[in-house]
Amino acid sequence: MEKKRIVVKIGSSSLTNTKGQIDQEKLAEHVEAVAMLRESGHEVLLVSSGAVAAGFARLGYPSRPITLKGKQAAAAVGQSLLVQSYIEKFSQFNLIPAQILLTRNDFSKQDRYKNAYATLTELLERGILPIINENDTVSVEELTFGDNDMLSALVSGLVHADHLIILTDINGLYDANPRNNPEAKKIDYLPEVTDEMVAAAGGSGSKVGTGGMKSKMMAAKTALSLGVQVFIGLGNGPRKLINIINGDGDGTYIGKDGLTAITNSRQWIALHSEVAGTLYVDKGAEEALLHNGKSLLPAGIFDMDGSFQKGDVVEVVGPNGVLGKGEVLFSSDDIKNIMGKRSEELVEEETLPAKVVIHRNKWVKHNRGN
Ligand SMILES: Nc1ncnc2c1ncn2[C@@H]1O[C@H](COP(=O)(O)OP(=O)(O)O)[C@@H](O)[C@H]1O
Ligand SMILES: N[C@@H](CCC(=O)OP(=O)(O)O)C(=O)O
Questions:
Q1: At which positions is substrate bound (predicted)?
Q2: pTM to 2 decimals?
Q3: Which atom of ligand 1 is nearest to the CA of 167?
């Protein structure tokens, strides 16, 4: 059997009841299924929601709070309860969980991003089961992942997972929300996710879930762009995750076989970096970057905006619009002096030790993971 790296995301609706309590039976079933996946030799990372849903009742809220401070306070209480339950239940299978709470900054700062990768990899190598959630108690609304569906997609890209399994309270994507439309038909397989499919999917059907199918489809689109296949659905009993991996899951499979994994530096540039400036390039440079897999040389740049340092990420604009983003090997001051000049001129002038402005390995085309 081929060992796979699998990210399993469990939604609030699959872990808690509407009264604001953890449903211990549901949680135990997920734990057993994860344990079976581990026993069969696979690596597993869990992205578990449910902190707010498991905590709000203990704070005296009648339902899931809507204010930021209410959600953050509920998450502080609920996250500890959740992890306590996980530790207890996983110990029956001799599995040791590790709690990892991430914020948007852990992805947007490149050193933190690299560090998150190193830590997760170290945990997996030592046989630990990472249980990841957003650090809700300190995240502010403008700086969140949106929801845990997106977090699970970003995590699955970060660790180069083979599969992302999104467990929820419905057996996959339907052509309309089946809670409102009894005629809705289930979709078993989708080779790709388009923006139209994301727009057509509906919101949450429960009082504890957030985002609904729309956010799962957005997450699936992101995961596919990072080379990770996706399953959205549910299942029963301890073999449910093994069945899903074997292609017998009750849900929707998304993505073709043999997707290309994207390096961490390209993922970071594409999805997490902040753009520090713009380079305007000519037709020849556009051709080199978009069609010939080449690096960007000074000769193709004719104008620029912004003030940036070596190592920052800039946007590159061609004659027909945005071409992509890349990490620059020179500061904006240096580029001002070298843009438009051919490499031979620069060598003669001894202006530069190297002549590439953006190396092709640190370049990401617009709307593409690679
Ligand atoms: N086209 C659709 N197909 C399936 N489910 C849909 C669709 N549109 C909306 N939904 C809703 O999405 C819900 C699952 O999302 P959500 O409530 O956020 O769960 P979770 O807590 O697992 O993230 C389903 O219960 C369903 O009501
Ligand atoms: N981080 C939040 C989860 C938010 C969320 O995305 O929930 P869900 O839609 O149930 O996956 C929590 O633990 O309550």
A1: 49, 136, 148
A2: 0.93
A3: 22
